[in-house]
Write a structure and sequence with these properties.
single chain; alpha/beta; Rossmann fold; 2 domains; 3-stranded antiparallel β-sheet; 9 helices
Length: about 270
Amino acid sequence: MRALDGLDLTVGEGTVLGLLGPNGAGKTTAIRILTTLLRPDAGRATIGGCDVVRDAHQIRSMIGLSGQYAAVDENLTGRENLVLFGRLYQLSGADAKRRASELLERFDLADAAERIVKTFSGGMRRRLDLASALIGQPRVLFLDEPTTGLDPRSRLGMWEIIRGLVRGGATILLTTQYLEEADELANSIAVVDHGRIIARGTADELKTQVGGERIEVVVRDRAALSRAAELLSRSDGDESTIEEHTAGSRSPLTEVPSASSRWCATSTRRRSR
């Protein structure tokens, strides 16, 4: 069995590539190889001109990784976690503390900096984990399903953080199971299944290849979702699926979702061929 089978990817500097696919498609295996955590059986991959096998040490100095699960110590405070990562990146004690303070402020964690991480919410842990991946100011960032397990509001907040990284010129390889997430964040998308790329292009190009239409109904009361879903499901023989997510309004000052999030029912319909 091959986890990856001829996977071919190119990510331009300063862009975001979304790697889209179901569980078991090979997304995390690709990330592990590209971040030097797993040695490939065959093939070749380079980052910034450095080979992932031959030049693993150089690559580790230029990348950051945020995995599917927050890799933070629950028994340390938020600040202590970031200082620890800074020291592991061979920053001096003073530089590690300075960098930790910068990132705590950037990720809206300054007020919780002295709290033990086991008291953090899921969204706070994900933000802290992403902050730890940035402690060494990497040129390339790998985000492996960064919103897995987050509630809709925290998910929208994480999207805003990632958009901020992109505006700052980050080069990002993002894996996700959600087309909506890849659509929101990626310049281009590669769809992976059974270790192979089965489609690639922008979100609009992929939607054109698949065909069909997308209808989204926004309601202010979550209790009205079932009625909206019922209305959307009425079709003339078209195949329809319903998903539920939030369409959060954002504060112009913080650019994070406010508490007045609205709820959406979405029908994605594929035309019969």
